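Encode chain A's predicted structure.
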Amino acid sequence: MYTQAQLKDLVEKALLNLSLSSEASKLTEPIRYILSAGGKRLRPILTLMACNLFSDKIDLAVLPAAGLEIFHNFTLVHDDIMDNALVRRNLPTVHIKWNINQAILSGDAMVFIANECFFHLPPEMLQTVLKIYNKTALDVCSGQQLDMDFEKVFTVTEKQYLRMIELKTAALIAGCLKIGAVIGGAGQKESELIYDMGIKLGMAFQIQDDLLDVYGESKTFGKTTGGDIASNKKTFLYIKAMELASGETLKTLQSIFRNTYHNTETKIKRVTEIYDSLNIKAITENLVHHYISDAMTLLDSLPLGNERKCEIVSLINSLSERNI
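Encoded structure for chain A:
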């Protein structure tokens, strides 16, 4: 069995060795920039871990795992443009370092580079994997559209929000796990079960990101904290606060998110105080733990020995303990 560190090393080497040659060097500079900016490499590591659950030979999964990481980074490039984000992984976002047009074009190129990473798979496996990949990619786009739609309305229900993050974030984590399992030789039942586990894990991951945006340390989080509040994002914390607030607290919260705040720091501070008064942090942490527990239950139900699951269990535990 491979350790998490060994798998990350395989992913980093695969990304480093990718051929990104182009007649137009400016096209590939932003791609190299975002891929070299680091990150957890969660999605490719999960791809390889899922493969390793069912097979000791994971070589065939390394390039697809790298492709999934490239696709993920493509979504970040375009999401940062849509969100007007300034910082990603403690570095200027691509559209800030270059410009919006360059970020769009280089992001587009990343999709095709990601596709190339799958074509060395055996033909009988390639069709199955590409179907999972394409469905996953469309789910992510649908989730992003819903997120954009939510920006134009004042009220979003918890059910609507959870569906949006299931598509935008959880579907990619689940798709990575399912692709890795398929390459590792898992049967249909096992690959579907590990997909479901990925959905639960992805839900926990995104809701925890919502929490970190308010209560995390900027250095640890890699992004400016309070950004969701500043941009009026309908996160789980916001939705739950709107549900629980009443009287003057509700009126204040509604006023803050309806009106333009000239002092962003004051806005973030005031909203955070309201969240604190409503115990939103603890409520959100409990939901994260609920999804983590569900993911662990699904993993436990896989008919494999505990020794094969120990690395993925360790990874899930580390995700649940991310600094807040």
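The radius of gyration is 20 Å.
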